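QUALITY CONTROL LOG
STEP: pairwise intake check
CHECKER ROLE: data steward
CRITERIA: each record must contain a sequence immediately followed by its structure tokens, with no blank fields

ENTRY 1 OF 2
RESULT FIELD BELOW
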Amino acid sequence: MPGENLSRDEARERAALLSVDAYEVSLDVRSAVGEDTGDGPRTFRSVTTIRFRCNEPGASSFADLLAPSVTAVSLNGRDLDPSEVFDGSRILLEDLAADNELVVDAQCAYSRTGEGLHRFVDPEDGEVYLYTQYEPADSRRVFANFEQPDLKAPFRFEVRAPEDWTVWSNGVGERIEKVREALPQKGGGGRRAGGVWRFAETKPISTYITCVVAGPYHQVTDSYERVFEDGTRLEIPLGALCRKGLAKHFDAEDVFLVTKQGLDFFHDHFDYPYPFGKYDQAFVPEYNLGAMENPGMVTFREEYIFRGKVTQASYEARANVILHEMAHMWFGDLVTMEWWDDLWLKESFADFMGSFSLVGATRFTDGWITFANRRKAWAYRADQLPSTHPVTADIRDLQDAKLNFDGITYAKGASVLKQLVAYVGQDAFLEGARRYFKRHAYGNTRLGDLLAVLEETSGRDMGAWARSWLQTAGVNSLTPQVVLGADGRIEELAVVQEAAESYPELRPHRVAVGLYQRSQVGALERYARAETDVAGARTVVSELAGADAPDLVLVNDDDLTYCKIRFDETSLATLREHLGGLTDPLARALCWSALWNLTRDALLPARDFVGLVLRFAGRESDIGVLQMLHAWAESALVHYAAPQWRETGGRALAEGALAELRQAEPGSEHQLAWARFFATAASAPDDLELLKGLLDGTEEIAGLEVDQELRWAFLEPLAAHGVADEKVLAAELARDDTASGKRHQVRCLAARPSAAVKAGAWEQVVDSDALSNALVEATIAGFGQASQRELLAPYTPRYFEAIERVWTERSIQIGMDVVRGLFPALQDSPETLEATDAWLAAHEGAAPALRRLVLEARDDLARALRGQACDAAAGTSAG
């Protein structure tokens, strides 16, 4: 039988044959505690009963299961030989009846990669914590099932757990009895006490959004109440969970505040009451994603619990994620895409709704600025990679699906929806959503199902819009052309639209064009605006004819559409001198984003972008934009600056960051942001001595509190430059002997400038699977230091020798982390590009998902080399 990589064709064939009525899943996780035998993987018992129908009696199919062993299989009362029907990933089901009952008793393995049932041991107190993460297809690591989104069914879960644990799942649960019985699974000899938790049956949901969380979690509770216009009353129990070690940092009251604001907002706009009973939110350790929308039991990465001082941008990001996952309760959980081709039907909508509700319901009213500056940057990058794809993608199999949780599916899709709202109007858009929920509740949909309701509510032909925006790839560029008359006023203003040769689609854009002039006090302010439809290669904006000559023309003012903004020569010259004078924060964010795209496209030298950041970032009021500028400036220096200018640019960034740090308001979030940026830029002896002094208390900057998280941020550059050794890092871990502290220490250890250190880090990640997913991530992050290019050079050939083996032997999550994280991007030379091309030519038969990752990394490298050539040319001309 085929392996574990389920194809779309297989899924469609199975969905045409089977209908699932119910699941009953019984898990025994008492083996999670106690000593590990060390003999094979630690396992737990999983017993699954599936009741399903087959519309072709006598036909054959299969169930999915990834497990070390299967104890028993029964189909319609017939005992099957597991060795004959189970191949490690599938259970063969032959001679099916019209109505069927399948019972599978298996030994499933706990995970250390964040896929399936993840087991985490807290180094602080030795407590064990479990949680599940499945998307797109890892529930089969925990129980036997039909692992595809369109075979929905109600689920009943029962979990046996250690006596002092609490267990949560999608439905409301209760502990019904204590048990003391033999543990049949590996590592569970003898008898062990426990408790049995049973959970209410769920509504029909897909396998990938079922969930179990178990352990001695700290829990805070609250409730949400809503009385609707017809008098009906809805009460939703709320819960918020984290590890006991994080309880002292857990601001559950703010989590609940945003949760209630979101529930109010979505009830106001969706006209469909929250359908899944309770609403728990668990912040869990070693999580691969930002969060996951399991109905009734949302899981988040625990880094959203802040151990030290952070800026408001961090609180805004957390609120956005809370609302994003909440939007999924309707877009994704209530109504689910039929197959991963239409992943956008949940992720694009949730991404859009996250910002839409953030601005409409919470204190974060500038959420669209963050969207324009941060989310769209992700989309623009993804849409220019060789792996770009339409928002509605061609997903052949599960490996394709895993990689398509990308900037196209999330941020471009959300940007397209923002354009759709401008195109059809907000009222028509929301009424379409309401009809969509009511028409397809607990079902599965395709693109056409959504377009149908939008055509009904807007009266517009959605087919042409969908073809341009959802079924083609690539990003358009919009550039203003200004012709002035003899009187100095605008005679004609046009918008020129361009597309890449590989994706030539010129789309219809609803845009606002803003005209800006400098005032007598130096402010750069908008004095005219026109909203228009751009179509084809050139569109005249007749509404602006006769306006005063502008200093700046901003195409896509207010960020209505998805495009790369370009500037005419006058506008670009104005920004070079007066960017800090732009008074509107959204306009300023859009200009910064456009300048960054120019840098990435080798149209603006990296040194010019760095210079703009040094000159104007200190005047940036939006903290999220400021932190994004810091990240872009670092990336410009590391990847796009000419090698011969890097040292000069690095000194300039460090000096500028330190000057801004000293000038920032004491105790302000801007001071904190500049402190962190200074640490990333520090390399000179005096800078490193200052960081050391801030750590040991011999130096002080008024108002700057060097808390534990900031201490680790200062230690990484000290470790990377050989100032903080293993002894220093061990002492810091003793000071912060927590799971978070361990991750920081591992990253800093791998950052040290030693050949032996790099060899050890490589062995731990590439040649061993002993590290958990979180420590793999931390090791990779420390390994690749921009100041250590020569030290890392020997790993270029080793990378290409290893990646196919890693992809074959390790889980897809770890494979992705290694292939992306260890690509020799810092060996930015034509020779590395040639080595990449040689690998691709010699491995045409490699897994498509693996080739996609290498092609993406190759494209980033080629783009960096073009940027370096542009920057070098600027340096030559300046000289």
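ENTRY 2 OF 2
RESULT FIELD BELOW
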Amino acid sequence: MKKLQEKVQGNKLLKESQLGREKILIKLGVMETGLTNVEVTERLAEFGPNRTVEEKKVSNLRLFIRAFNDPFIYILVMLMVVSYLTDDMEATIIMALMILASGVLGFIQTSRAERASYALKNMVKNKVNVIRDDTMVTLNQDEIVPGDLIEISAGDIIPADARVISATDLLINQSALTGESIPAEKFVEDKRANPEIFERENLLFMGTDVLSGHGRAVVLRTGSSTFFGSLSIAATERRGDTSFDKGVKSISKLLFYFMMVMVPIVFMINGLMKGNWLEAFIYAVAIAVGLTPEMLPMIVSTNLAKGAINMSSKKVIMKELSAIQNIGAMDILCTDKTGTLTEDKLELVKYIDSAGKNSESVLKLAYLNSYFQTGWKNVLDHAVIAKLDDSVTESWAKVGEIPFNFDRRRLSVIVENSVETRMITKGAVEEMLTVCTHKEFDGTISTLNESEKDELQEMCAEMNRSGIRVIAVAYKTGKAGKAFTKNDEEQMIIAGFLGFRDPVKTSTKEAIAHLFKNQINVKVLTGDNEIVTKRICQEVGIPANGFLLGADIEELSDGELTRELRKYHIFAKLSPMQKSRIIGLLKKAGHTVGFLGDGINDAPALRKADVGISVDTAADITKDASSVILLEKSLTVLNDAVMEGRNVFGNILKYMKMTASSNFGNVFSVLVASAFIPFLPMLSLHLLLQNLLYDFSQLTLPWDKMDRSFLKKPHQWEQKGMLRFILCIGPVSSIFDIATFLIMWFVFSANTVAEQALFHSGWFVVGLLTQTLVVHMIRTEKIPFIQSRATAPVMIATLIVMTLGIVIPFTGFGHSIGFVSLPGSYFPWLILILVGYMATMQLVKTLYIRKFREWI
């Protein structure tokens, strides 16, 4: 619907630009004297103030509440209430601590990020000269209404979308919206049937600025109805669910379904076998806690926070913590061209004569023209001036100038020395050749015929095809003191041509190669022309087998465009909403999409992407729409961010798989034990304590590192893969739990209600130690401790937990909660079980990797 509204709005502007000057004033109900105060009041009430939207800051209270908005926390709250109602105060306190720790940590991390994330400002707050009641008044831009007549001149920012009704040498910089650095000249009438809205010569757009000249315009659209306003809306609306959001939800659902199936079964078996339904209920609640990865919010927040700190040291600022995982999962990067692949700085790369040979005299003529012109110096002039120093001008004095306009498409400067007066002209090739009748080559001047003009145009066209922008340089001489005018721009001598190129960044080609190597497909989305874009893509290693233009995209349905997106890497002459549409369709096709851009016109695409990436020098509206800010506009920096993102995601995935599989194994063991043992295999408090200690051992996972093999490709949340992992790996621990049951039952005679404390103690130690060792078994696809070792924090944490697990049954605390000291003969059996468990797990892991070609 929104896209349709924008298209209708664009069509209305096109129609209004095609109306004559008088007709548009009549349509808007305004006379040459401007609106009356009554009319202004009515229109202000109808259309509202001329303001664009901006994102509102979220209060700390709302952030705190959001920190507890997690499905696993909901489950814990429910279980805590149940424990409280059944007078199980120990379980109530433990779960309350888990909830509080997880929520508070999440709030701290999110609030830190939020404080730096609201940079959107009104970019166009300025004063405007307006004609009202036949009087010129100066107003704030938010007081402008449709139908107002505004006066504009050099330095002004256009306050609304408007239609030109008078203009004199009016040059507008539209680069903020189009990305095009060359200014557009505006006129009263535009007879061309041009479908490109930004190429209309009599339309002005909010947020653009006046470089030179002056004019008058009538306001057509204000506030959020303008093109700039629609971009502001797109930049501040809520980002849709990203890859990270969808992944967490899918895994949460899977674990919740597990709980809904397993907990009632445990409850029924224990109730039927033991006859104590209250005890069975409390035990089932403990099992539910055991199945809940209650530390997931904390683990995720800690991982993301640590990743954000690491990235900041690599010149990457994370505005949204979830973007860290998204940037690691990214498999398509869409990027703007200018300033990302290139230096965003035109460079003079050729100065040639009419025969195509390098010519210093052509460069000197161009320098005199650019140096002495008093009007707005564009990027081409600066590139010329950068090639020489002002010593070239020592023997010349400026005596006149014929300014640039878009009818002639050229600019002339008149200079003289003691011998002669010379008019030096530079401009568009085609227009320049129409006024040239001679050419200069090796100091000799000869007649220029039509076939030679065709040859020169073909030479320039060939440079265009290679991505070089070309302008021509010509001159005409006269006696000292001769006065040249616009009428003298004829029968000139073509001296040669200048070729300009936006050079590719030296680091780009290597960075692109790394992105492709790391299985990230790169697509270029640009408002620039396809020829220049194709040449740059060829130079940096992006496939350039074809391209799709914005005009073509407009004619395609979503299904047709999705098919085309698979074919091409280059999309040129795009409007802001076309960029956003492409990204939306790529996401819909199942990709995790990043977009890198820095213009106002990039804001909708940045907001639509899973991860919007901008730079700190970008416009405020652009930075607000982004989730990642690069302190250096470089794909090399982005590569570093991708690797860090994958490492963070890997550590989160480790926790999910470790916890889910080991908890499932424990519950499976409980089911078996409950069916055959006349007492509870472990008290609910023991299960909660075991779970708490195990979670502690995993709190250091954010400081772990991932295997290089994991970092080579993007990874996404996969519910099917998680289910397969749980079902294959979880039961391995159950084998050794059952072995422990048999040993405690037959070897240590813990087979009566009177001896259940010994049974509980023995299984508590085995269960905790095997769960803790699984951290090292699952964290790598290699052989743990030999081929791949965890970082020191992980090693220390697991060692502490294993030590506590062994010691607790021997302490007064252990005795107070129902444990007894274990006999010395227990420990050889413990070592045998642990060694057997690790060997079996490694074997199953090897078979799993061989079968499914993946691990973490």
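INTAKE CHECK: passed for both entries
DESCRIPTIVE NOTE, ENTRY 2: The CA atoms of residues 86 and 282 lie 8 Å apart.
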